[in-house]
Amino acid sequence: VFTAARVAAAPEDPLFGLMKAYREDPSDKKVDLGIGAYRDNNAKPWILPVVKKADDAIHNDPTVNHEYLGIGGLAEFTSAAQKLIVGADSPAIREKRICSLQTISGTGAVHLGGLFLAKFHPQNPTIYLSNPTWANHHQIFSNVGLKIAKYPYFHVQTKGLDFDGMLSALQSAPEGSVILLHACAHNPTGVDPTQDQWKQIATLMRARSHFPFFDTAYQGFASGDLVRDSWAIRYFVEQGFELCVAQSFAKNFGLYGERTGAFHFVSAPGPDAALSSAHVASQLAILQRSEISNPPAYGARIASRVLNDPELFKEWEADLRTMSGRILEMRSGLRERLEKRGTPGSWDHITSQIGMFSFTGLSEEQVMKLRTKWHVYMTKNGRISMAGLNTNNIDYFAEAVDSVVR
Ligand code: PLP
């Protein structure tokens, strides 16, 4: 019989354990480079000015109420989210072969996609995840019963992409495998394929009939340019792939706690594509209904106002440049400081990597020394959240890194 006494304690989530240790550290020098959330130059959460504006407008709108949204979410939000990721002029939209549901942020979108594939893929497929990847991918896909395999991604020596390793793993994966791809600003490495490499990945995946599952959590946040950060997805759509996309608005709108995201399924082009797309949409709606019934309204209302208003959209793009620009400054500032000190090792990867994170190459031992001796908190794999650096702590952090690698 079931009894709570049989339930063993779960291991602590490593990231949340790290946050707790940081909070409990009384040092006034402490630096938090753990959590993947944007911080301003004073290490404080930043409400995007455009989000504040949209939020105020919602408060003053007498037509807004607290009714349920539909199962698929706020229609003006999902249609705008769709245009944002595949492009307003995408053949997938024109040919009515993309369907979109609002989800519980990116996590919920990844989950809905995993659940859908587990249920409707005829072969109980294996999903291939980059090694390493966002840790939650493993939990989400195993929870829905997908088999998980890894493809090489990070090259330890170059601290860049292990492109040959990646291609050969995708080549030998069983035909029709599901391949999880980070659309931009790969988490945790900050390493992305170049456009030419993406083209080669697409060619190989097409030859092997693999199914691309894109995870996009950093559009606009990575380069500051929404189109550039969605290039890979748009390219795969143009190439006629059937694919899906899990889209998060947590980082690029700073709507972390509002759980704002979308799941998109693009059917392959063809005479029956629109019909297949409608079938997929109807099945996704049933899955969504049993899991969350209907998604939360608040964050989607904010994002929708911004995405659908040309003036606010422009302001949002400026806010994106503020965030990505500050992170780029921290990247070049850190590299410059380490190189000036003659810190052993090469540090050009700090500026070639992109997005929220940098995979520093620091060992677990060095990470622990940074924590105990310098009150600097980062994950054991040497990943730092670039947004945790600012003009007040960057010198201190460079000094700390220099001391632990010598
Ligand atoms: N996917 C990746 C690669 C991420 O890094 C994240 C957040 O860190 C997510 C998805 C989902 O985040 P959220 O559920 O907060 O949108």
Automatic annotation (TrEMBL):
GO terms for biological process: aspartate biosynthetic process. Its EC number is 2.6.1.1. GO terms for cellular component: cytosol. Residues 29-401 form the Aminotransferase class I/classII large domain. It holds the Pfam family Aminotran_1_2. One of its GO terms (molecular function) is L-aspartate:2-oxoglutarate aminotransferase activity. It is an enzyme of class 2 (transferase). Coiled coil: none annotated. Its cofactor is pyridoxal 5'-phosphate. Keywords: Aminotransferase, Pyridoxal phosphate, Transferase. Homodimer. Belongs to the class-I pyridoxal-phosphate-dependent aminotransferase family. NCBIfam families: PRK09257.1. This is aspartate transaminase. It comes from Penicillium bovifimosum. The lineage of its organism: Eukaryota, Fungi, Dikarya, Ascomycota, Pezizomycotina.
